[in-house]
Amino acid sequence: MTTLTATVCVAGCGPAGAVLGLLLARAGVEVVVLEKHADFLRDFRGDTVHPSTIEVLDELGLADRFLALPHHKVSTVGFVRDGHRLDLADFSTLGLRYPYIAFVPQWDLLHLLVGEAARHRNFRLLMQAEAYDVVRDGGRVAGVRFRGPDGDHQVRAHLVVAADGRHSAVRRAAGLRPREFGAPMDVLQFRLTRRDTDPDEGYHLRMAGGRSVAVINRGSYWNIAYMIRKGGYEELRRAGIQPLRDDVAGLVGFLADRVGELTGFDDTRFLEVRLNRLRRWHAPGLLLIGDAAHAMSPIAGVGINLAVQDAVAAANLLTRRIQQAQATGEPIAGRALAAVRRRRRTPTVAPRRCSAPPSDSASTARCAATPPPTTA
Ligand SMILES: Cc1cc2nc3c(=O)[nH]c(=O)nc-3n(C[C@H](O)[C@H](O)[C@H](O)COP(=O)(O)OP(=O)(O)OC[C@H]3O[C@@H](n4cnc5c(N)ncnc54)[C@H](O)[C@@H]3O)c2cc1C
């Protein structure tokens, strides 16, 4: 087993881990980021980059490069219910520097972030490095054990940050369990061809007859997210592909001529929606951020943005102490780590109220009244 050393070891290179890795690298911190996959090319991941996140990229000098990536801008968010459109938000009226959501494939965003971080020699990204346990020194987390293509290794670090997503292995190894809130639905994702003549209607959930679907413009195709009630997947499969095609055609009329592209359930991907949150986001030597601390519903499209904001908050609150730890070996105090959750609690709690497609006008109004997540 090889032992690497770093000041901070971040497990997971999703939006949270990549942003934190970049921010710490810029501050001269020796940081190792572990990513279990060999690449970032995973379809059907959150790709709704909100105005606040674009502003963060702007502050990092990355906005121009970000906006040069293939993307699609949307300024209104809402519902089309039984044919009637209801806009819940219109970013163009808020006087923002970037008054829109940019739909950017998550892998492009991650490539941009780690490419920028790699300009710093104190940043190391290890791909195909799967964290599976924590190293302990007494009662303190002092590193991470990970599995690579050539066997098992460990990184010893003053601070371990779990940014390894909703099924966080580091969280499990540290013995932390999130409080589960339950989710009323799961999501089936698939693609259908997009034509230039198709309407462009912002980011609107289409609802009718108790069914709902979101269609996301990905240039040459539509990324379709079809909501199914929790536990309803097997029943849907048993009914065969035709009822699904009919539903999509009924909900999104202009797709009726191509729902036949769905040849079977092998063309779809089932994604379990989970909603949970940790009561404490830290333990001695360990901090948890992003989905590892609070898994979000895809409905509000805030998951990436909250993950990025967690990383920014962690960097803002902790960088000076981390630099001190790097210089002196002094541990980072628990109360400093606890400040991250305190800063981020409200924005991570608020979107849960919008975690399911609203079933009535009261819940639609509640959703509309939910304040947008604040920046970090
Ligand atoms: C169906 C669905 C649709 C969604 N749609 C949206 C959307 O439209 N907009 C939005 O903003 N959010 C959406 N989300 C949520 C969003 O994807 C997440 O909230 C966001 O990606 C969280 O970022 P993260 O960095 O915390 O975790 P993740 O994005 O999950 O990243 C974790 C990273 O850690 C890696 N990893 C995992 N385990 C290990 C390990 N043991 N060792 C090393 N690496 C590991 C993973 O490969 C991954 O790269 C959606 C989620 C789902 C399930």
TrEMBL record:
Residues 340-376 are annotated as: Disordered. It comes from the Bacteria. InterPro entries: FAD-bd, FAD/NAD-bd_sf, PheA/TfdB_FAD_monoxygenase. The keyword Oxidoreductase applies. Residues 6-326 form the FAD-binding domain. Keywords: Oxidoreductase. This is FAD-binding domain-containing protein. It comes from Nonomuraea rosea.
